[in-house]
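Something for you to look into today, if you have time. Could you write out one complete protein record for me, on any chain you like? The space below this message is yours for that.
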Amino acid sequence: MEEYKDKLKIFKALNDETRLKIIDLLKDKEKCACVLIEKLNIAQPALSYHMKILLESKIVKARQEGKWMHYSLDPYGINDAIFEFINTLKIK
C-alpha cells in the first residue's frame, strides 16, 4: 500500500546495527565518508549501501566535496521519522 512506503523506509533505516552506528557517529557533526569507513571498519561499497537507505529515509543528508561525500543528520527528516513512528502507534 502506497501510504506505508515512507514508514517502511524509516523502519528499514533504523532496523540495522551498522546504520544505527552511523546515526550515532553523525549525532555531533557532519562526517566525511572516509571517516565513517575508518570508524566502522567497513568497505566503501558497504557504506554506500547503508547510506543509500539512510538517505532514502531522509534521516541523513549528503553533500559532495571533491571526490568525497559528507553526511550529516537531517533534523527535518528525523522529526518526520519520529512523527511517522508516533502515527504508527496511534490506536483508533
Remarks:
- Residues 84 and 90 are 10 Å apart (CA to CA).
- Helices lie at 5-14, 17-26, 33-40, 44-57, 75-89.
